[in-house]
Design brief:
The protein has a single domain, classed as 3-Layer(aba) Sandwich (Rossmann fold), CATH 3.40.50. 44% of the residues lie in helices and 15% in strands. It contains eight helices and seven strands. Strands 3-2-1-4-5-6-7 form a seven-stranded parallel beta sheet, with helices on both faces. Helix 4 links the parallel strand 4 and strand 5. Helix 1 crosses helix 8, helix 4 packs parallel to helix 5 and helix 6 packs across helix 7. It is globular. The structure holds NADP nicotinamide-adenine-dinucleotide phosphate (NAP). NADP nicotinamide-adenine-dinucleotide phosphate (NAP) binds next to helix 1, strand 2 and helix 6. This is SDR family oxidoreductase. It comes from Pseudohalioglobus sediminis. Belongs to the short-chain dehydrogenases/reductases (SDR) family.
């Protein structure tokens, strides 16, 4: 299928690893010119080089923390007029006892998982409206719809994000700008490996990734029977970035192997 994005300018904010990188690869494969961001420079530069060499498209790396105004300004300068904007960002680590969650932890969560993507969207939406085309995809989390006691630093802020995009997407769809969210379940990414160690710590388990993963799987049955690869969500992200998705507006697409029990 031709995604019809050859030559379009695309941003993958958070594109050096995991689902962000997998999405960047699908966009590059379809011929988009990319700007990818991340906080850690070495991995970002390697990712940009590898993606560019593999798919023969332009990939510009920008070291930028999306949760900081300074980082967002660096992105805005590097790419003032994208056609496509995909955003992912790492919220604070899993909390342990919910009674120990402090106001500072909430502020960090909201600043990162809610205000950061909103500020990036708020900056780019006027230009997209003016040009009559835009695609925005947030890679958030299924815990936005499926609350988890150990993901209080991720789920609630993302529930607010999908509430925000539900409203804004209906406002801007008439200008050719479509905003949708992907809500991933359990994916074996670089970020998940880091997260599992803090998960183990929060739940007093042996600080080993496999111990935490087994504990997690026992407590969260995945009907598909496996933990996914980042590549399992990227085709959906790429489709939502395409002109072909012009009638998909304000949706939250859960990709979790059936783990989330809900009709909608
Ligand atoms: N993996 C899972 O099982 C899972 C489950 C549910 C939800 N999610 C959500 O899905 C999203 C992607 O997760 P993932 O597992 O693919 O993560 P990942 O492997 O850590 O990749 C995240 C990418 O985003 C970048 N990034 C993170 N925070 C950033 C920031 N503040 N500013 C700029 N770039 C940033 C990372 O690079 P740097 O670290 O160098 O900045 C990396 O390139 C996250 O929002 C996560 O909460 C993941």
């Amino acid at each position: 299928m031709d995604l019809q994005i050859k030559g379009k300018k695309a941003i993958m904010a958070g594109g050096s690893a995991g689902m962000g990188r997998a999405t960047a690869e699908r966009l590059a494969e379809a011929g988009a010119d990319l700007v990818i961001t991340a906080r850690r420079e070495e991995r970002l530069l390697n990712a940009a080089k590898e993606i560019s060499e593999q798919y023969g498209t332009s990939v510009t790396p920008v070291v930028a923390d999306s949760s900081k105004e300074e980082g967002r300004q660096a992105l805005f300068k590097a790419c003032p007029d994208p056609d496509i904007l995909a955003i992912t960002i790492k919220p604070p680590a899993p909390n342990g006892d919910f009674l120990k969650v402090t106001p500072e932890m909430w502020r960090d969560s909201v600043e990162t998982a809610l205000i950061a993507p909103i500020e990036i969207m708020r900056h780019y939406i006027p230009g997209m409206k003016e040009r009559g085309f835009g695609r925005i995809v947030n890679i958030a989390t299924f815990s936005a719809k499926n609350p988890m006691i150990w993901r209080l630093m991720s789920g609630p802020a993302r529930s607010a994000l999908i509430n925000y995009t539900a409203s804004v997407s209906r406002e801007v769809a008439q200008y050719g700008v479509c905003i949708n969210n992907i809500l991933p379940g359990m994916f074996a990414t670089e970020g998940a490996s880091e997260l599992l160690l803090t998960y183990a710590d929060a739940f007093g388990l042996e600080p080993k990734e496999d111990v935490a993963m087994n504990h997690f799987l026992e407590n969260n049955k995945i009907p598909a029977g496996f933990v996914a690869d980042a590549a399992d969500m990227a085709p959906m992200a790429a489709l939502l970035c395409s002109p072909l998705s012009r009638f998909i507006v304000g949706q939250n697409i859960v990709i979790d192997g059936g783990q989330h029990h809900s009709l909608f």
